[in-house]
Amino acid sequence: MDVGLNEWFNKGLTPEQYMETLDKHKEAFNHIYESFSVENDETFLQQLNEKNVRAVVLAEPWCGHCMLNIPVLLRLSEKANMPIKFLLRDENLELMDQYLTNGKSRTIPIMIFINENGDEIAKWGPIADKTKQYVDELRKDLPPKESEEYDEKFKELIAITGKEFKENADLWNGAYISMKETLSKI
User: Fold this and answer.
1) Origin, by domain of life (predicted)?
2) Domain with 91 in it: what CATH number?
3) SS3 readout for 84-140
4) Is 7 helix (H, G, I), strand (E, B) or coil?
5) How far is CA 178 from CA 4, 108, 168, 173, in A?
6) Model pTM?
7) In which domain, by residue range, is 138 found?
8) What are the tens digits of pLDDT across the range 110-125?
9) Pairing state of beta strands 84-88 and 54-59?
10) Count of structural domains within the chain
11) Taking phi first (over 0 means left), then psi (-120 to 50 degrees means alpha), and beta for anything else, what does residue 174 get?
């Protein structure tokens, strides 16, 4: 049976319920949420509101990219009065597998924007170009996965990116600009 996006939306967690699932990234998530604010862009925000856009977001509380991007989306949704529901990726693979990155990867977050009929009108995720450039630059120094030192170096990379995601407002703004570009096309 093909479940429509309205049904996925209806079964999702509210932002508050999703935030209650946070553990490892809770402090950084809350820091970004408290520190980021959406620019005064009344025309854009009003257009979103008038189109009755809603979002279904595939995410997980342990995901660093979710920690960076979801607080930005929450601030945008508050300004535009855009309802959002969250689905935990690992419990909703049927939907996730329809939104694979590069046709093969379950990378999150995936933000599916829908209209009042439940039709997809835009998709964003998993990361903004600015974030991808930053991460790709760090990844180029990783040893091959087969290397004995790969796991240690990968853990170091995760620590560096987690700190940067938490503290670098340019990355937050890059995420917002990317989301805005996607949503401006609807």
Assistant:
1) Bacteria
2) 3.40.30.10
3) EEEEEHHHCHHHHCCCCECCCECCCCEEEEECCCCCEEEEECCCCHHHHHHHHHHHC
4) helix
5) 26, 15, 16, 8
6) 0.95
7) 5-184
8) 999 999 999 999 999 9
9) parallel
10) 1
11) alpha
